[in-house]
Structures are given as C-alpha cells and as structure tokens.
C-alpha cells in the first residue's frame, strides 16, 4: 500500500510504502477429502460456493478463474474447489453427473446450483442470492 504524506514544516509530499496485515480467512481453497469438506463448507460461518471440476474439463478451466475473479472483492463468500477425480465420495453424495457443477451452500445446506459453463450474469445471480441472504 502506498500512502502519501505531507511534511507540514516543508510543504513537501513524500511517499511511504506501508504494509497492512489483517486476519482474513482464506477465500479460495481446494477440498482434499470429505472431512475437509465438512470442516470448510458444511461448518462454515460464511456462505460457500463449491465448484466441482476436473483437470481435463475445458469449460472448468474457464469457469474456475472467472468465479474466483468475481468473488475476490467480496469478503463474506468463499470458493471451494473439488476435483471430481480425487473425491468420488463427494461426487456421489451431491449427485454430480457433469462438470463443472457449482453448488451454493449456506449453513451447510445447498441453496442454489448450476451445471456447465454459464455466463457472468448467472454467476452474479448466484453470488447475489448468497449475499442477500447473508444480510437478511
């Protein structure tokens, strides 16, 4: 962070680099197993968007960074990434039949979802629903 200061005695401005450290929870994380899913999604105080994806899935390679970009300015919605090839139990539990599959969780419950590569408006609608419900 750059801050501009003015020396009142000399009327000169100078720039000082400062660093700001704050305790911010990780907004994006990769889920490795069912236990971690329970801890970081089901038991989360924040709403969580869960992106079921695969490395071989071309639409996933577009959707995942787009969602991360759209969620970056928001402090109270997290993004969990689940690789379907490494998490068969979660795929079965949430009946994921195609990727990308995106589920929105609030208080451990799925409140919305979509499947496939969607436009930015649909992602914004999903984010908006989670943000509005948080305020209620």
Keywords:
7 strands; disordered N terminus; single chain; about 140 residues; alpha/beta; 4 helices
How would you sum up this structure, described in words?
The protein is α/β, with parallel strands linked by helices and 136 residues long. Helix content is 33%, strand content 30%. The chain contains four helices and seven strands, in the order βββαβαβαββα. The strands form two sheets. The protein has a five-stranded mixed beta sheet, sandwiched between helices. Strands 1-2 form a two-stranded antiparallel sheet. β4, α2 and β5 form a beta-alpha-beta unit. It starts with a strand and ends with a helix. The relative contact order is 0.18. Residues 1-5 and 14-26 have low confidence and may be disordered.
Question: Helices and strands in order, then pairings?
Answer:
Blueprint (H helix, E strand, L loop, with lengths): L1 E6 L4 E6 L10 E4 L2 H9 L5 E6 L4 H14 L6 E6 L4 H6 L7 E6 L2 E7 L4 H16 L1
Helix pairs in contact: 2-4
Structural class: alpha/beta
Shape estimate: globular
Query: What is the percentage of strand-forming residues?
Result: 25-35%
Main sheet specs: 5 strands, mixed
Separate helix tally: 4
Average residue pLDDT: 84
Distance N to C terminus: 34 Å
Order of helices and strands: EEEHEHEHEEH
Give, in spatial order, the strands making up the sheet with the most strands.
3-5-4-6-7
Number of strands: 7
Could you estimate the helical fraction of the residues in percent? Answer: 25-40%
Q: Cα-atom Rg, whole angstroms?
A: 19 Å
Low-pLDDT windows of residues: 1-5, 14-26
């Amino acid at each position: 962070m750059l801050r501009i200061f003015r020396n009142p005695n000399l009327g000169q401005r100078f720039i000082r680099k400062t660093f700001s450290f704050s305790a911010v929870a990780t907004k994006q994380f990769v889920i490795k197993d069912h236990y971690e899913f329970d801890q970081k999604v089901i038991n989360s105080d924040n709403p969580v968007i869960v992106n079921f994806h695969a490395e071989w899935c071309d639409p996933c390679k577009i959707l995942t960074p787009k969602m991360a970009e759209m969620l970056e300015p928001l402090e109270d919605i997290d993004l969990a990434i689940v690789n379907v090839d490494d998490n068969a139990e979660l795929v079965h539990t949430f009946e994921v039949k195609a990727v990308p599959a995106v589920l929105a969780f609030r208080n451990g419950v799925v409140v919305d979802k979509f499947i496939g590569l969607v436009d930015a408006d649909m992602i914004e609608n999903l984010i908006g629903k989670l943000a509005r419900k948080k305020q209620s």
